[in-house]
Description:
The complex is a heterodimer.
Chain A: E1 12-16, E2 23-24, E3 30-31, E4 34-41, E5 51-55, E6 82-83, E7 88-89, E8 94-98, H1 130-143, E9 151-155, H2 157-168, E10 175-179, H3 187-201, H4 217-231, H5 234-240, H6 260-273, H7 278-290, H8 293-297, H9 300-303, E11 310-316, H10 324-336, E12 341-346, H11 354-357, H12 359-375
Parallel strand pairs in A: 5-8, 5-9, 6-7, 9-10, 10-11, 11-12
Antiparallel strand pairs in A: 1-4, 2-3, 4-8
Chain B: H1 2-20, E1 26-30, H2 36-45, E2 48-53, H3 56-63, E3 68-71, E4 86-92, H4 101-111, E5 112-120, H5 125-134, H6 158-167, E6 170-179, E7 182-184, H7 190-196, E8 199-206
Parallel strand pairs in B: 1-2, 1-4, 2-3, 4-5
Antiparallel strand pairs in B: 5-8, 6-7, 6-8
Amino acid sequence: xxxxxxxQITPATYAFGSLEEPLRLESGHCLGPVQITxxxxxxxxxxxxxxxxxxxxxxxxxxxAGVHTPHDRYTGWWDGMIGPGKAFDTDxxxxxxxxxxxxxxxxxxxxxxxxxxxxxxxxEFPVVTIGDMVEAQKRLIDHxxxxxxxxxxxxxxxxxxxxxxxxxxxxxxxxxxxxxxxxRLSTQAxxxxxxxxSAITRDPDWNAGQYSGxxxxxxxxxxRMVGHITYLSELLLDEKFGRRLQSAxxxxxxxxxxxxxxxxxxxxxxxxTNRFDANSYLYITKAMDYFDxxxxxxxxxxxxxxxxxxxxxxxxxxxxxxPTAQSKEMVRALLCRGKDVSFIDIDSPHGHDAxxxxxxxxxxxxxxxxxGVGQEAAP
Amino acid sequence: xxxxxxxxxSRTDRDMILTLVPEGARVLDLGCGDCSLLNELVREKxxxxxxxxxxxxxxxxxxxxxxxxxxxxxxxxxxxxPNQSYDYVILNQTLQVxxxxxxxxxxxxxxxxxxxxxxxxxxxxxxxxxxxFGGRAPKSPALPFEWYNTPNIRVLSIKDFFDYCxxxxxxxxxxxxxxxxxxxxxxxxxRATNLLAHIGLFVITQHDRPD
Lengths: 379, 211
């Protein structure tokens, strides 16, 4: 089949939760009004039963496919997966992706204006959880007139949202695709997030979250460098960079950027500061740290007792941030409850990043799974 | 040539398994490969099924027909699957390649009400002849491998299997034997099967299950 681009896309926004009727957060705080920025690809069918919600990861956003202008250098972050003839086939499905609350790409977050002060929220912004992100998405999905999602898909933190959706609104989720994710963030991953947040909050330019313009660029860049290491595998780093020096053959005996891997991380760090807000990084990593199914819903085999979705779990062989065992743990709980669940571990050298890179394999898996979801008898 | 013969053999034991599984059953196929048997069972018998195999990319072929697929290693055990969660658990041409057949067989009968078991009979007369006269590890069209590359690490005969069932109080509900190119139900002369059958196919169940 012909794999095409969804073409030019214009993001939309949806606002809800007036000051009188705000979004109630898990922390007990209220947030409102709330704005959600989102994109849709493909068309709804008559009863809106073909909707698929895509959930983005930490540094992603609502721009999952296509381009915003014909001159864009980059397409959306999952362009290889979303489009006519692709895994999320926009000839068949109505695909939706929204920016999480707490984010910095148009949905309400710490960089938005606080209606009470007229200034950016900064640290006045309440701490949000994955559950709160889902709650906000739920309002959007209701607004779009969708009663039941054909599927919901995401990797990493996107997988957290997928799981939360399927547990919080079991009747609204027909199938769930959870990639490189887990029932809770591991201690090791919390530790790396803590380092990232420290790098930001110890940058003098952070100024307790009150900054305008660029803000703590150095801290955010370091946070991204640390994060980036956790997304790659040892094997891949070795293969891609080895001990190669960036420009010279001789050691320089100083502290300038010297190894190829140093230069790569420097680039990743500084490029990130151009597209991401430091406070959002704090809020979103915090939301990830808090995510723990067992804390909210009890032990896994009880938590999954009442779900209604068909699940697909995909893990990646060299992912050490969200290791295979963490996916298997959930698969086991679902099997134990007699639920419909599929599990595949993709052999890949790409570490955690594989969920974005192994598109060919993932395409075969996802398109097969989505077709299979349609095969089941109507409930 | 041989591989064609083996394809035909696996073709025929699939056909036979198709006749043994009732309409609408819940089926788990252990070592299902590319899910082709399960896919056929979905088409012909409207079963609800799960395929388990060590090769995840092969399993993809089962997803589109609505099967659940599960990448896993039989040698690591099947404790994830709850007791009596399937009507039929299929273990076709797989028993002879697992490290711990006893654990696998226990699991088959724990997870399923019935097990469907197919394995090559290592006491078939051509193999005996090969060993006796040739003095070399036996080969046959159904078992074309050399000793150094055979996946078959467990060597059993139909007689061995009967002994095992007796010892473990396993009932044999149906038996089918591939002799020459034809499937035969319980033959006239039972003892001949161990000499003649290339493949034995059995539907088994635990005799005294504490339900």
